[in-house]
Amino acid sequence: MLIDLRSDTVTRPSAAMREAMARAEVGDDVYGDDPTVNALQAEAVRLSGKEAALFLPSGTQANLVALLSHCQRGDEYLVGQQAHNYKYEAGGAAVLGSIQPQPIEADADGTLPLAKLAAAIKPDDIHFARTRLLSLENTLGGRVLPQAYLQQAWRFTREHGLALHIDGARIFNAAVALDVPLKEIVQYCDTFTICLSKGLGAPVGSLLCGSEAFIQRALRWRKMTGGGLRQAGILAAAGLYALEHNVARLRDDHDNAKWLEQQLQSLGVEIAEPGAQTNVLYLRQPAELAARLGPWMRERGVLISSGPLTRILTHLDVNRQDLQKVVSLWRTFLQQHA
Q1: Domain residue spans of the chain
Q2: How far apart, in whole angstroms, are the C-alpha atoms of residue 336 and residue 338?
């Protein structure tokens, strides 16, 4: 069995999750008749304190639908230079929504400086796109956005007439790292997403949460972008199982990432900032060494996206024993390539 450290998207549904999927009661979700989808959305509402939630096939589509629901053609959203919904989602908002992104360089802690955001807001002038939205990401590269910053960003958007969206692909990792319930984080946003298919271990799916009126707009955009599903309860059951069983255990992933960080440091591997705040760890290595490490590890059953800046993610399919093997192999590799 391969030890896959490339991402937490590689997790496979457990036997118990598969059983929940097999037993799922289903209906036609386009009609709103799938009881398991409805139960999943209701659980997201309960956990978040928002008025409504919508199940979508992917995090990319959930972010796209959020942006399309917040902004009109010719509008603009403020977003981090390294944010997923700016850099890694094929320019969907611009291409499909004619929404202009205004990227902002983040500080070292992942926050977008409020002064830079204020300077980027366009005046009410026919020459400019209309600034409508601030989009944050939590976590960003494994960094947990501080609660105090979220509160400040929330106040900032109220003062400037903007909406605030959080790409929460790993927002439960942030909640577990801060040891607070999800509600404590998302009280400082209008809308947010949850990815079910990363550390939570579901095979597919994301949730978009917000007000009743917003989710009604999002429902139309979900249909328009091809996200209307029929007997989706089979998939929603996995997400429901994940929310009920796989949130608290994210702490294990965080602990494993911190342990791996300490072990690699003891081997002389350079750890990039901020270290293992959650389940994400970055390390730096010479390009020539990185080019050899990836294939060498693959031959020995370990998958790593090796590069000068290497990202490693721990998840529910990787345990401490697996990581002990990784460290042992890494030690051997460094000895052979000294």
Answers
A1: 15-246, 249-336
A2: 6
244 alpha-carbon distance from chain centroid: 18
**Cis geometry, peptide bond prior to residue 274 (ω within 30 degrees of 0):** yes
Could you report the per-residue pLDDT of 33-42, keeping only the tens digit for each?
999 999 999 9
Task: Indicate the CATH number for domain 15-246.
Answer: 3.40.640.10
Please choose, from the candidates 65, 46, 47, the residue with its C-alpha nearest in 3D space to the C-alpha of residue 55: 65
Please measure the distance between the N-terminal and C-terminal CA atoms of the chain and give it in whole angstroms.
Answer: 29
> Any alpha helices (H) in 53-166, and if so which ranges?
59-70, 84-87, 92-97, 114-120, 147-160
Alpha-carbon span 292 to 307, nearest angstrom: 9
Average confidence (pLDDT) over 216-231: 96
Task: Tell me what pLDDT residue 132 has.
Answer: 98
Alpha helices of 161-192 — where are they, by DSSP H?
171-178, 182-186
Tens digit of each residue's pLDDT (9 = 90 or more) over 178-201: 999 999 999 999 999 999 999 999
Task: Please give the model's pTM, rounded to 2 decimal places.
Answer: 0.96
Say if residues 170 and 134 touch (Cβ distance below 8 Å): no
The token duo for 119 is 């300077």
CA distances from 38 to 77, 158, 229 (A): 30, 31, 13
Q: Tell whether the model's pLDDT for residue 165 goes beyond 90.
A: yes
Q: Span 249-336: which CATH code?
A: 3.90.1150.10
How many whole angstroms separate alpha carbon 2 and alpha carbon 11?
12
What is the distance between the alpha carbons of residues 18 and 13, in angstroms, rounded to a whole number? Answer: 6
